[in-house]
Every structure is written in C-alpha cells, then in structure tokens.
Amino acid sequence: MYGKAFAPEYQGALTTLSVNASLVDVLAAGTEELRAAERAGRHAEAARSGLAVAEAHRRLGQVREADRAWKASYRAARAAGDTAAMAWALWSGGTLARQRGALALARRLLALAAELGERGGDVVVRGYSLAGLAETGRIQGDYEAVGRLHEQLLAEARRRGEARHTVWALEGIAQMHRNSGAYDTAYALFEEAAEIAARADDRRGHAWALRGLADIVSVRDGDTERALALLSEAEETCRAMNLVSALAYNLKMRGNVLYRAGRYAQARGLYERALAGFRGMDEPRGEALARLGLVKSRARLGRDRAETAAELAELARVLERIGLRHAREMVARAEQELGVAAETAR
C-alpha cells in the first residue's frame, strides 16, 4: 500500500511544501529560508533550503543558477558536518550534470552521493542517487547494465511503500521495454505507474506516465487522437507546476505522434517549439532528439536530400559525443527511413 507522495528534496523548514507545489513558489520559499539561514549562520539549514533552491532552478531550466545553488548547498553541508545533506547536494549536482549531457560527471557525482548517503544513514538519498545512476545508464542505452538496478530499486521502493520512487522505477523499466519493442509490457508498466501516481497525488510522476502511455498508444495502436488527449492532460500538469523540461519533452512527443500520423507540417512546428525550449535550458539530449524529429519532418516536406544527410551525420556526431547509444541508433534508422544512408556514408 502506498502513502501520499512526498518530496524528500524539500527539507528543513521546507518539509511542508507539497510535491505538487509550483516550482516558482518553491524557489521563492527556498530563497527566503536560505537567506534567513545564512544571516543566522545556520549552515545545516542553509544546506537543506539551498537544496530546494537548486532543484527548483534545475527543473525550471535555469542551469547556471542551479549549478551555483547545489555547490553552495554542498559547502554549507560540509561546514555543518552533515554527511546526508552533502549527499543530497551531490545528488542534485549529478542530476543537473545528466540534464546538461555531462554523463561522466553525472556518474561520478551520483556515485559519491550514494556512498555518502549510506555513510550518513539516509536510505532515501542513497536510493535516489542509485536511481540517478540507473537513469544515466538507461538514457545511454546500456540496458543490460542498469536493468537489474532498476528492478532492485523498484523492489526497495515497493517494500517501503514509497510511491514517488516506485513510479520513477516503473517508468524507467517501461521505457527500456518500449525502446526494445516490447510495447505491451511497456504499456502495462506505464499504466501501473500512472495509477500509483494518481492515487498518491504525484502529479509530476503522473504526467510522465501519461507521456509514456501516449507514446505506446501512438506507435503500437496508431491511435493519434487518444495519444494527443493523453499528452494534453499531461501538459496541464506541466504548466501548472512550471515543469519546463517536462513540457518540452511533451511537445517533442506531440511531434512524434503527429509525425507517425503523416501530419508533417504540424509535427515540424512542435519540434521547433520543443527545440527552442531545450536550447533555453541547455539540455543537449532533448535538443538532439527534437532536432532529429525536425530533420525528419523537413525531409518529408521536401527538403534537399543532401542537406538532410549532412544534418543527420552531424547529429550522429553530437550523440556520439554525449554518449547516447540508443539515440544514435535512432539516427541510423532515420537515415534508412529517409533513404539517405548511402549519402551519409560517403
């Protein structure tokens, strides 16, 4: 049985904040508490409130501010001798590094966060940090290496009745099945995630689950209108909570759904909007995926084949540099689909 979802990254004086609080409100409250703690010389409270500030900035796509905030949180935690708070700051920094495409740095920070979490006796930050490592491997396409870790973390979250972490694990496992072509299994897992998130009032987790369901409904069933309806429902949450990154991924998925339906001009417009969003928050993975959709849409609308081939080749180099193997395979499939593979090879 799962309880109501909570946000363990909202700590100290901010524990009363809802998991569904608007990120603008979280940032305002966190900044106020942080300044008060700094004025009073309360390092431990500065570390805890600074964590919420860092996470709000990150999720709002304000990466420079997020980078400064997690580092300041870590320094305050170290000054207070609070090992668990140090782990939470490193978790935030590792998550930001993954968002920015610095995957090697993400792995280092998250591994250290997991170690400090265990040393500090905080099982939640240890679990979140291991989950971050698993997600980093997953987005790189290293499913064999991280599949077992996802399953382990899911089992731990279920035992503790921790709804938010259970939803995350289910969605990660579902995404791996979806990318491997096991659509029925992926759908069932996304559906369970959506149900748990809804009962636990985890609106962010619910929005991501709806996005996953929409993808399956589109690619497996060809049901464009139902997929778009699911994405519209998810979009309401993204806007209400100011989930900038999630909204950009929602727009990209809308583009995918419309592209599959042969509505290329509409898809192009959505990919352009998603691309602008990802660029605004310095999220290279999302930017590359939106560019891929945009290239494919423009090709379908009559773009010059040589230009298409050149951009796909450049995209492949970008994805190789980031280390996203699954996404690199998507580029190869696009080359085959558009009939430019031979030109790219020349």
Structural class: mainly alpha
Reading the helices and strands in chain order gives: HHHHHHHHHHHHHHHHH
- Count every beta strand, where a strand is a DSSP E run of 2 or more residues: 0
Low-confidence stretches: none
> What composes the largest sheet?
none
CA-CA gap between termini: 58 Å
Pfam families: TPR_12
InterPro entries: TPR-like_helical_dom_sf
Protein name: Tetratricopeptide repeat protein
Written description of the protein model:
It is a single chain. This protein has 346 residues and is mainly alpha-helical. It has a domain at 262-346. The protein has 17 helices and no strands. It has helices spanning 23-40, 43-59, 63-80, 83-99, 103-119, 123-140, 143-160, 163-179, 183-200, 203-221, 224-240, 244-260, 264-280, 284-300, 305-322, 325-338, 341-345. Helix 2 (43-59) runs parallel beside helix 4 and helix 3 (63-80) packs antiparallel against helix 4 (83-99). The longest helix has 19 residues, at 203-221. The protein is globular, with a radius of gyration of 20 Å. The relative contact order is 0.08. The mean pLDDT is 93. It comes from Streptomyces griseosporeus. Pfam families: TPR_12.
Summarize the entry for a quick read.
By secondary structure, this protein is mainly alpha-helical. It has 17 helices and no strands.
What key phrases describe this protein's structure?
346 residues, mainly alpha, Tetratricopeptide repeat protein, TPR-like_helical_dom_sf
